[in-house]
């Protein structure tokens, strides 16, 4: 009774036609059942080889198709083989928070233990582990990097599995460089690098340690320091690829009509659609649901669900529950479903050809999230998602010629397209002084590096010798936030508004405090107006927070005001943690009550680099960044949209048809020179003010 289709199997049946529904996502009906499922996964055949390689090699690289069982099985094999004995811990990192939570709960379920005991997870601001009990710990690569600040050799771990290495997230790359150093000091530490695509060669080159390494006297014969590579054969089914004949003008619309067409013409089986982010995903969910209803049939059996990080727990679970009999699930996802998590039951994939990617330009000093074309490697991964349970179909919303001639073969590692400020401060805090000489899997650009050093110098984090300043630099490195936010918190201690700044920092750490998806945009905009502050978005957050507290933290109040109750609870939680950090590093906790000038001054202390000025001749709200003279506009979701104060600071940029500033406050330009005299030449700014 396998739910997998073998090629040539009799008549295709529905995925959910099996007894008890789709096994992988239903709760286990018994231990034997779970054992059988585990043994059916492709990695199972390699269990002995994997354990042998890990035993004998310092580094093992494992390549295997998504869904073959790398993430959920290998940590369990290691535990079964004794790698967690004696209080040691097996770590498995993921670039994405949602993936950390989802695989940890899956593994806890398979092992029949309570999440947070033998199997736990840690993401920023959420630690679900039990020291001394947890044997397998899933965590984001960013959290593991932070742990190195207190335990530079990561001594509690016996094996560290760097998973999803093909994603080349910035933290993964930094970790790989650091782990290579740690291995030299701790030959007993084992690394597993696992990846869905074959970049194994460059990875194994990276971990090839010199054969002529001199053994320090007295050192026992350790493992082979050269890395081993193992490839897990998958068992995907054939996927038929369909291209569009002409380029589509609007991938969102095209995705919507493709889904409806599949639903109309094709046999049952779930649909996975790759779009780019919360905005277009929410829009697509709404459009498909509406059009499906408009077609007159009462219940056509479509269940349309979004999937992106930041989605509330309850909604995530819907995505993972087996599709009820007679229904067809449509999951509209970011590229999180590309390799990080596997959805069972998908037979059709619709690939927009785009994803949201971070791009940084060191010349203009602008970093933003851009909707950009994916690589061929990504397109192939997306296609593969359709062949998990039986032969499937993939609809690419771009032409075959475009795929062949214009798509790049591989994506660019994130470290080469990011602002390096957070990365540099972290390495400095770990005592790595020569950052350009660091052993990177892919080198960042020297322009970006120089920019980062310059910003950190202006923030007062680095001194003239590019060393962390004491105490500012060390304090900022200690706060688990972007250094610009940490700096604004630190400044608020001196300005007497730390309570307010901690609320703002907590709010900026979550995706949105507003509900989306129900009610109309107009209603939401009106609800927002109740809290709108003339000074800008950050001050409006404070109003929402105050209202929430005054309501007695009521969920009804949230509902009435279009505020996301779950998000507000998260803000409270993060706030508490940040308050503890603040106290530890000596920030005085104090409220400024209603003084919004000090609040904005504190923000300016962190975000001076993001200052913009309204163009004198502009009637359409055009701003220019002070540093790079780039054209930017206030995002329609901001309370300052159409208000257009002369001088503003923004928290981040998003770019669609134009570059939009998100989360904006108005400032007085004199605060800029006060906050960062080195950064803004006084004269130049003065001439702009007049
Ligand atoms: O890491 P890799 O992509 O190789 O596979 P995995 O995540 O370990 O998934 C192995 C199997 O476990 C797949 O069939 C998944 O569908 C299933 N799984 C699950 O049912 N629930 C999860 N939260 C994660 C995985
Ligand atoms: Mg995985």
From TrEMBL:
Query: Per UniProt, which keywords does this protein have?
Result: ATP-binding, Helicase, Hydrolase, Nucleotide-binding
Pfam assignment, any one:
AAA_22
Q: E.C. number, please?
A: 3.6.4.13
Which parts of the chain span the membrane according to its record? none
Gene Ontology cellular-component terms listed: catalytic step 2 spliceosome
This enzyme catalyses: ATP + H2O = ADP + phosphate + H(+)
Do you know which InterPro entries this protein is assigned to? AAA_22, DEAD-box_helicase_OB_fold, DNA/RNA_helicase_DEAH_CS, HA2_WH, Helicase-assoc_dom, Helicase_ATP-bd, Helicase_C-like, P-loop_NTPase
Q: What class of enzyme is it?
A: hydrolase
Q: Does the keyword ATP-binding apply?
A: yes
Give a yes or no for keyword ATP-binding in this entry: yes
Q: Molecular function terms in GO for this entry?
A: ATP binding; ATP hydrolysis activity; helicase activity; RNA binding; RNA helicase activity
UniProt-recorded name of the protein: RNA helicase
Please give the organism: Prunus persica (Peach)
């Amino acid at each position: 009774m396998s739910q997998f289709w073998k090629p040539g199997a009799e008549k295709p049946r529905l995925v959910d036609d099996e007894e008890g529904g789709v096994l992988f996502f239903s709760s286990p009906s018994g231990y034997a059942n779970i054992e059988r499922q585990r043994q059916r996964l492709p990695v199972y055949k390699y269990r002995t080889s994997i354990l042998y390689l890990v035993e004998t090699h310092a580094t093992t690289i494992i390549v295997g198709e998504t869904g073959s069982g790398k993430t959920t099985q290998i940590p369990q094999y290691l535990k079964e083989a004794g790698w967690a004995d004696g209080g040691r811990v097996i770590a498995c990192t993921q670039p994405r928070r949602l993936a950390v939570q989802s695989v940890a709960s899956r593994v806890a379920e398979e092992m029949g233990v309570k999440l947070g005991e033998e199997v736990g997870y840690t993401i920023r601001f959420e630690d679900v582990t039990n020291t001394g009990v947890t044997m397998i710990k899933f965590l984001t690569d960013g959290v593991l990097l932070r742990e190195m600040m207190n335990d530079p050799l990561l001594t509690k771990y016996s094996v560290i599995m760097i998973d999803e290495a093909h994603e080349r997230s910035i933290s993964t790359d930094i970790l790989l460089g650091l782990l290579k150093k740690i291995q030299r000091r701790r030959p007993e530490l084992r690394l597993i690098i696992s990846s869905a695509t074959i970049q194994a060669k460059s990875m194994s080159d990276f971990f090839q340690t010199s054969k002529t390494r001199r053994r320090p006297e007295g050192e026992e014969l350790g493992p082979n320091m050269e890395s081993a590579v193992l490839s897990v054969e998958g068992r995907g089914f054939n996927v038929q690829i369909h291209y569009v004949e002409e380029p589509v003008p609007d991938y969102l619309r095209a995705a919507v009509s493709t889904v409806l067409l599949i639903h109309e013409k094709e046999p049952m089986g779930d649909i996975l659609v790759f779009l780019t982010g919360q905005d277009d995903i929410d829009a697509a969910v709404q459009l498909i649901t509406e059009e499906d209803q408009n077609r007159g049939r009462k219940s056509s059996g479509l269940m349309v669900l979004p999937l992106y990080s930041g989605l509330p727990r309850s909604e995530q679970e819907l995505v993972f529950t087996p599709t009820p009999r007679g229904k067809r699930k449509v999951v509209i996802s970011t590229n999180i479903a590309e390799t990080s998590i596997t959805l069972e039951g998908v037979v059709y994939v619709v690939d927009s050809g785009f994803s949201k990617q971070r791009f940084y330009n060191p010349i203009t000093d602008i970093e933003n999230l851009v909707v950009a074309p994916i690589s061929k490697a990504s397109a192939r991964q997306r296609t593969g998602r359709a062949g998990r349970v039986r032969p499937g179909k993939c609809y690419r919303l771009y032409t075959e010629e475009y795929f062949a001639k214009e798509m790049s073969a591989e994506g660019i590692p994130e470290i080469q397209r990011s602002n390096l400020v957070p990365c540099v401060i972290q390495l400095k805090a770990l005592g790595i002084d020569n950052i350009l000489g660091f052993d990177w899997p892919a080198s960042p650009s020297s322009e970006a590096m120089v920019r980062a050093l310059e910003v950190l110098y202006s923030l007062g984090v680095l001194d003239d010798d590019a060393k962390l300043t004491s105490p500012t630099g060390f304090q900022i490195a200690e706060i688990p936030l972007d250094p610009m936010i940490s700096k604004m918190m630190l400044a608020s201690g001196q300005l007497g508004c730390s309570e307010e700044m901690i609320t703002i920092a907590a709010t900026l750490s979550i995706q949105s405090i507003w509900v989306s998806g129900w009610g109309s945009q107009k209603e939401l905009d009106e609800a927002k107006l109740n809290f709108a502050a003339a000074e800008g978005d950050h001050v409006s957050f404070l109003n929402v927070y105050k209202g929430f507290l005054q309501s007695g933290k009521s969920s009804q109040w949230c509902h009435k005001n279009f505020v996301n109750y779950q998000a507000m609870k998260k803000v409270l939680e993060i706030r508490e943690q940040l308050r503890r950090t603040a106290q530890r590093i000596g920030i005085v906790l104090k409220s400024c009550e209603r003084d919004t000038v000090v609040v904005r001054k504190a923000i300016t202390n962190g975000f001076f680099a993001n200052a913009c000025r309204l163009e004198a001749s502009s009637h359409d709200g055009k701003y220019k960044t002070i540093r790079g003279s780039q054209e930017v506009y206030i995002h329609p979701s901001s309370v300052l949209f159409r208000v257009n104060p002369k001088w503003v600071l923004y928290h981040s940029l998003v770019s669609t048809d134009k570059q939009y500033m998100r989360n904006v406050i108005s400032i007085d330009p004199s605060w800029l020179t006060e906050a960062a005299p080195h950064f803004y030449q006084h004269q130049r700014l003065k001439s702009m003010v007049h």
